[in-house]
Write a structure and sequence with these properties.
35% of the residues lie in helices and 7% in strands. The chain has 237 residues and is mainly alpha-helical. A two-stranded antiparallel ribbon has the order 1-2. It has a two-stranded antiparallel ribbon with strand order 3-4. It has a two-stranded antiparallel ribbon with strand order 5-6. It is globular and about 45 Å long. It starts with a helix and ends in a 7-residue tail after the last strand.
């Protein structure tokens, strides 16, 4: 709940675990911790090998939190693993339970920046602000930034259009999940992910090369042109 306070040395943006894993990691369709714990170890395409749950948590810090990996034996990762284990009591292992992952669906039409902007202004800006920078209460974000230096970086899973659309459809606007159409969810995911954010930590120094190596999918806008702008250069201020 308070990742920046309790693990600040490993967080490089304004986010906390709770921003994606809603309701203290308990909410279905928001990557609940009870849904993921029993699925590891597993092969993960992003890592090109079988990884443990602890290694998956490390990747959250590196990409979603735009920070660095806590040591494998750190109290931070032990606490997160223990909490996930506690939430997962009674859940079968190796079988993805219903609600354990983001919704998966395809839009009727190709996602569109302008339509997404309309959805964002009408449905999202009231919490995340017109400039997408969220809203703070004191030092912490009440509603997280969706792009810019304090958001997830280009290597995060939420940077994929299908992942972002699934999260948005199943959870947003907050308290009104599944109120957006499939098309609206994809359009607003496109609009959000067409904005700059911190650079992918795997960046090779060449945008096209990094896209070819790590983002070679139609679900990523990294290294592509959107509205005449090259996306993926990174947001550092």
């Amino acid at each position: 709940m308070h990742t920046r306070e309790k693990a600040g040395a490993y967080v490089g943006n304004g986010l906390s675990c709770k921003n994606c894993h809603l309701d203290r990691g308990r909410q279905p369709n928001a990557m609940p911790l009870w849904g993921g714990y029993g699925l590891y170890p597993q092969y993960r395409e992003k890592n090109k090998r079988i990884i443990t749950y602890i290694e998956r948590l490390q990747d959250c810090f590196l990409y979603s939190m735009n920070g660095k990996k806590p040591p494998i034996d750190s109290e931070i990762l032990t606490a997160l693993e223990a909490y996930s284990h506690w939430l997962s009591k009674g859940v079968k292992i190796d079988i993805p339970p219903e609600g354990s992952i983001f919704l998966k669906f395809t839009p009727p039409e190709q996602p569109n920046y302008q339509r997404g902007q309309t959805v964002f202004n009408a449905q999202c800006a009231i919490c995340h602000s017109q400039d997408g920078q969220g809203q703070k209460m004191g030092k912490d974000y009440l509603y997280p930034p969706l792009w810019g230096k304090n958001s997830y970086n280009w290597g995060a899973g939420m940077g994929r259009l299908d992942t972002a659309a699934g999260f948005i459809k199943g959870n947003m606007p907050l308290g009104q999940e599944n109120s957006l159409s499939d098309q609206q969810a994809w359009d607003v995911a496109f609009f959000i992910n067409a904005h700059e954010r911190p650079q992918d930590p795997r960046y090779t120094g060449n945008l096209a090369e990094t896209r070819a190596k790590y983002h070679n999918t139609p679900y990523s806008l990294y290294g592509t042109q959107v509205n005449g702008n090259l996306v993926g250069l990174g947001a550092n201020d």
